[in-house]
Amino acid sequence: MTSLPPSSFDAAAIGRLDARIQRWIWDRGWNELRDIQAEAIHTLLETGDDILIAAATASGKTEAAFLPILSRIAEHPHDGIRAIYVGPLKALINDQFARLEDLCERLEISVTKWHGDASAAGKQRAREHPAGVLLITPESLEAIFLRRPEDLTRMFAETEFVVIDELHVFLGSERGVQLASLLKRLERRTQRRPRRVGLSATIGDPDVAARWLNPAGTATVTTIRSAAAGAELRLQIRGILGAAEDDEEEESEARSGEAAGGVRDAPALLQVARHLFATLRANGNHLVFAGSRRNTEALSDRLRILCEQAHVPNEFFPHHGNLSRETREWLEQRLKEGGIPTTAVATTTLELGIDIGSVESVAQVGAPASISSLRQRIGRSGRRAGKPSVLRIYGIEHPLHADSSLFDRLRVETVQCVAAIRLLQRQWVEPPREGGLHLSTLLHQTLSVIAERGGAQAQAAFDLLGGAGPFASVAPAQYAALLKGMAAREERLIEQAPDRTLMLGPAGERLTDHYRFYAVFESLDESTLIADGKTLGTLSVRNALGPDDFVIFAGRRWKVVNVDDRARKIFVEPAPGGRVPRFEGEAAPLHDELAAEIERVYRSSEIPAYLDAQAMRHLAEGRENYAQLQLNRRPVISDDGRIHLFPWLGTAKLDTLRLALRYAGLKVEQSRIHLSVGDATISLVEEALGALAAKPPPAETLAFLADNLRTAKFDGFIPDELLREAFIRDRLEIGSLADAVGRLLSA
Q: Which residues lie closer than 8 Å to 442 by C-beta, 6 or more apart?
């Protein structure tokens, strides 16, 4: 893999571009190209390399890729889709379409957006007269394979470039595996390999990204990094001391806190809302990342109430994946126009490069679990020249009392906030995991291949999907076992014809014939919330609601007036009360480096200047309790009738140790940073650790103890023995067990 040093402005780079693109640059008033743009022009137009462009948010990565690509297309015009842009979000595709449309019009190059909300007429034109640039999601590309396989060669036979935006989102994820498989299948179908261009602001390991871009070898992948200094970062971690807001107590606590006018006695989220209201209102545009959809709704509701109490217009609105597209797009457009002060309270939906204009600041509620996500969020502010990035983190802690948990006494939230900032300052980012079996997505792609081709031989399917690429870790015997399981189930996903051709079985036909099949991630059965004929969004059926129930959604409070179970519609009207619904999938694992940095913060005496007075007190309390528990001397302690183990390892290694101790006969629970053992003594735990050190259990044995083997969308169709093999490779870190045990026995 080649890595290019950053260059100063290269006037020769502009000269390599089509004259119409040069005029477009001058019309925009650009004084110079950015360093990544100049390097990308030379690399794309003068070599045959794949390219990884790694630069901060708003650094011009899109132009770095498309200025030379469009110049190449304009100088060598012919029919066919010449470049594919793959984005993870429909909203991001819409933004990039708007950015490219004017330039493509000047060059007389067609540009088409293709996703579930794009116009059918535009898609039909692209099928019948393929040309120019196609902007598409992985799911829509999957749909073409399934619904229009006869169009694939005609549409993509002339494709020269594939641009993958927000590449870090795809690395190590099932969507990334699906996309890599689709690109590989497309190359086989067209007998042509387009050059790949990856764009990202947060690449933890460029070598992993390079291997994703070119699984056959990274020698022809060039990495271009920006030398431009990022915006100045202004940072504060604010300590919040308050009770949690549980479903049953939330309203009474909020009302009592508001009536008393207190801060210490108010629920934590209400305190956060008060500070945000006082700091952000009528002061430009801001983003608040609330950590979960539940917190997003609760915090938006709190902020709306504060606006009403102050008799001022509401400026605070939620943004998450369960809200209707119209609701999200309205908020995105309001932010982008920038005429009215606006704060979006979001989950991760505004983390990626959707164009929402300039924001004055970013806030994070709770400790960051991912440095990659934190970097993306910070990059949303400080985009204008001379303006700093502003980040506020609210570290929420609970009041201490005689029965406080060990977690609360150690002030883990505050310590994790400090640890995350220290890693951010060192420019460390989590590297993605490699080498998984990804059996759920392999099953999905097998069904897709059979549906695309009307049948396939087993060996041909493995030759297509296996080998170098996303399923490189899958052995032929494992693939054969997967096929056998797909055919043996009562549902019969696949069947075998007399000539041994694999065909779709009844269940396989039902699966592939539904639009939900296009995505490799799970989409829960959901009901639509409707108010006065307008769709608010969707809720999982796990949130059972009936007439006269109350709910907080879209930042407002509603009463359920009617439920149509058959149509899965819930009709609501405005109401004064409500509860925040439960949402799924909001936990995030910790990396080993973040866990280790948390321990280093405990051992340090440094008091960062970016802590406010309350956060300083929380940090001091956490360190004091860390010392009193003698965790600085011994990693195994007794407290509250339980034995606690602190090996300071990330989620995957901690889970491996938990299973090993369970194998040793102990009752073990896992928290964010440690393990807790019940009905045991220190000597009993140390005896079990010694036994594990002397004779570690086989990985196969630990896999039998796993709580849940079925975590991916199609795992329910996969035989248990294969899922255990996948668990060992994908989620178990058996090689870390000796180190983990050694850490605990060393004191």
A: 465, 471, 474, 479, 482
pLDDT, tens only, 395-449: 999 999 999 999 999 999 999 999 999 999 999 999 988 889 999 999 999 999 9
Q: Which residues contact 194 (CB under 8 A, 6 or more apart)?
A: 83, 84, 159, 160, 161, 162, 187
The residue type at 74: A
| CA distances from residue 467 to 167, 174, 181, 471 in whole angstroms, order as listed | 22, 17, 11, 7
- pTM score, whole prediction: 0.91
CA-to-CA dists, residue 88 to 135, 379, 435, angstroms: 11, 18, 22
> Cβ of 480: how many Cβ atoms within 10 Å?
13
- 322: enclosing H helix or E strand: none
**CA separation for the pair 496, 458 (Å, rounded):** 10
pLDDT of 340 higher than 80 = yes
Query: 583 vs 64, 93, 132, 294, 405, CA distance in Å?
Result: 38, 26, 41, 6, 26
Rounded Cα distance between 667 and 713, Å, is 30
Q: Per-residue pLDDT tens for 225-259?
A: 987 666 789 999 999 999 876 543 444 444 433 33
293-302, 559-568, 630-639: which has the minimum mean pLDDT?
A: 559-568
The residue that leads in pLDDT, 72 or 385, is 72
DSSP bridge pairs for 316:
343
Residue type for position 338: G
All residues at 6 or more sequence positions from 74 whose CB lies less than 8 Å from its CB, including other chains: 18, 20, 21, 107, 108, 109
> What 3-state DSSP class applies to 3?
strand
β-strands 534-540, 286-289: how paired?
unpaired
CA–CA separation, 549 and 572 (whole Å): 9
Token pair in block for residue 117: 């909300």
Instruction: Report the C-alpha gap between 648 and 415 in whole angstroms.
Output: 13
| Ramachandran region, residue 381 (left: φ > 0; alpha: ψ -120 to 50; beta: rest) | beta
Q: Kindly tell me the burial class for residue 389, based on how many C-beta atoms sit within 10 Å of its own C-beta (0-12, 13-18, 19 or more).
A: buried
pLDDT category of residue 318 using cuts at 50, 70 and 90: very high
Predicted confidence at residue 524, as pLDDT, reads 66
pLDDT in tens, 707-739: 889 989 999 999 999 999 999 999 999 999 999
Do 595 and 733 form a contact (C-beta atoms < 8 A)? no
The pLDDT confidence band at residue 543, using thresholds 50, 70 and 90, is: low
Cα first-last separation, the chain = 43
Greatest C-alpha distance within the chain: 79
Place of tokens 């039902």: 510
Rg of the chain in Å (alpha carbons) = 27
508 residue type, one letter: G
The CB density around residue 444, as the number of other CB atoms within 10 Å, is 26
Question: DSSP class of residue 115?
Answer: S
